[in-house]
Specification:
Elements lengths: L52 H7 L2 E16 L5 E15 H5 L4 E12 L2 H6 L13 E13 L4 E8 L23 H4 L13 E11 L2 E9 L13 H4 L12 E12 H6 L7 E21 L14 E20 L7 E11 L6 E12 L9 E11 L1 H13 L11 E12 L2 E11 L17 E11 L1
Antiparallel strand pairs: 1-2, 1-16, 2-3, 3-4, 4-5, 5-6, 6-7, 7-8, 8-9, 9-10, 10-11, 11-12, 12-13, 13-14, 14-15, 15-16
Amino acid sequence: MLSPLAPGAARSATTPQVTDILPSGVPLPPPTPVEVQPSDDPTTELLGNAGGVRPWLARHGIRINVQDVEELWGLAAGGLHPGPTYDGMTAVTLMVDTERSLGWRDGLLNISALQIRGRSLTGERLGALNTASGYDAGRSTRLFELWYGQGFFNDRLDIRVGSIDLDTEFLVSQNASFFLNASFGWPLSTSSNLYSGGPSWPFSALGARAKWMPIDQLVLMGAITDDNPTRGPFYSTIAPTQRDPSGTAFSTSGGTLFIGEAQFSGDVARWTAGKDAPSLPGTWKVGGLYDTGRFPDQRYDSRGGLLASPDSTGQPLYHHDNWMLYVVADQMIWRAAKGSNETINVFMRATTNDGSRNRFATEIQGGVTFDGLVPGRGDDTIGVAWGTGFYGSRAIGNARDAMRLGTSLAGALKPEQHVEVTYQAAVTPYLILQPDFQYFWHVGGTSFDPQTGHPIANGVVLGLNLTTTF
């Protein structure tokens, strides 16, 4: 959402954020309650003017952005198998302003691609539900998004059509995006309850998105996409990135996903302390999604018996349709002085949905970021965040059935909780270094390791993220 509270803010039809290429939990840029467009200053990128190539391309309406992420992770204690892992990603975005290139006003063509590498700390060592990093997404080299956007009515209305990703615009908290744990971007409530996690990084789906700003403080958004970006079944032993390794499946199978969101922005300080008080902007969102696809029951099989029974068919009963509602709040609560970059911001996000066909029925997250408060490091940010997801009633019932019938070693379900403490250091305008600490309770959301029946100790994760903008 492009807030009028950001000076010189431009509408998305003409200059979308280059960070749209990244998962919604990203280390760039420092968090703010309002969305600010990235600078066109070439000194903020490692290659600068690239020997004059960038200015020449800009005159023709072409902008190329390259971002590289390198991460080292280590499971220091608990989980499944303590030890280190590496993951990385390189993202390339090509944006064409059609007014400069073709004389077609307020149009934008966007093409992006990803190269994802490394191993999964969460899957191979930790065993958690909430993935420690948003870049832990399965190795592949793939097309990400391919869409055309057109602005209307002085860009008050913006339409995108093509293969689009939803998690950089919908269900997003700008302050939560500072954190590295993937759940602070696209949460469990969608990544676990939708086919292949839904149209979210690193996947996109065919569809259309409309964004309308009827007044400066209000944005209304809606999108319609295919609900199954990789065409796979709901349960599969094949990873989604293996089913569609190139990102060119352009699936039209399965159901249709509808999502809508209303965003309101305002300045709390002006409401409570007058126009001369230091600005305290905030953005509050309410939204929901509806999916016409078929979703598996969490307790009963295709004949109406218990899935946990030794006599079960092993195939769940499928229901038509699914839904979810959510609220998101980003609020600056303190500013050192008028216009100061020394701020404290908080965020909160909550989701709810149907407990019969969704493993996770409720999710809550919250956190606080401290921006510019480290002496001598005005561009650095410190953050602390917590999150948990609660199982639906039928998932809980299924676990109890399995214990009673002796068909599982996992024991009772317990909500996995995780806390993250992280520090973002702006080494240069184009180089961000972010050490990270995460602690997990009830790893995997179960009482015991389902493979061995042994208790799983709480997980201690240490990480380091290095992000470079070229």
